[in-house]
Amino acid sequence: MRAANFISVAVAACALALGCAAPQTFAAGVGGVRPHSTISASAAASQSDDHTFTHKEGGITFELPDGWKAEPDGDQLTVSSPDKSIAVVFWVTEDKDFDAATKALGEELGKQIKNLKFDGEAKGDTHNGMAHSYVSGSGQIEGQDILFRTDILMAKRPVIVLTFGSADNLQKHAEDYSKLVKSIRKVE
Q1: N or C: which end of the chain has fewer CB within 10 A?
Q2: What range defines the domain where residue 22 resides?
Q3: pLDDT for 56-76, tens place per residue?
Q4: What are phi and psi of 21, to 5 degrees?
C-alpha cells in the first residue's frame, strides 16, 4: 500500500531528524536539489527558484524558508530545517478521494508510531482556499519522544503533509515552520 510506504519514509525522516539510525529506504533518496531542476518524474514537482516548489499534478506550490532543504524520494518530498531537526514530508496521493486518503493515513500512523496519542479529533477548515483536515499528537519513534502534525489539503488531488520533531526543535523552528505552512497555495 502506498500509504504504508509514505508513512515508512516519513518515520525514517523523523528518525533522521532525531538522530536515530535511518533505514536504507530513506538514505537512498537523500540528495541535493538544484534550482530549476525536476525533483523526480513520479513526483512531478519542480523547483522554480532557490525557494519555490510546485507540484503541478497535485496542484500546490510552496516556499522554503531560508536555509531549509528539500530532498526528493520517489513521489515524496522531504523538507527539513537547516539542522535537520524537523522533518516535513509532502506526498500527493494518486487517489482523488479526500476521505479515503485520510483513513489510510490514520491507519498507517498507528502502525509506525509507538504510544501514539492524538491531541483530539481531526478538525477541518480551509487553508488558502483548499479544504483542510488536520490532527496532531505525540508518540515515540525508535525510543525518541516526538510530536507530529498531519495535514491533508484538497488541491487538484489530496496532498498529505506530515511534520515530525521533538517539542524543543519544533519550538526552535516555529517561526520558519509557520512561514512554510502559510506559503502552501493551490495552483491551477
Answers
A1: C
A2: 2-186
A3: 778 899 999 999 998 877 668
A4: -65, 135
CB contact at 8 A, 163 and 148: yes
DSSP-derived secondary structure for 7-66: HHHHHHHHHHHTTPPPPHHHHTT-----TT-EEETTTTEEESSSSEEEETTTTEEEEPPT
Q: Give the three cell numbers for residue 150.
A: 498531519
Q: Which pLDDT does position 20 carry in this prediction? A: 39
C-alpha grid cell for residue 164? 515530525
Nearest to 18 by CA among 70, 81, 100: 81
47 φ/ψ angles, rounded to the nearest 5 degrees: -105, 115
Identify the CATH number of the domain in which residue 20 sits.
3.40.1000.10
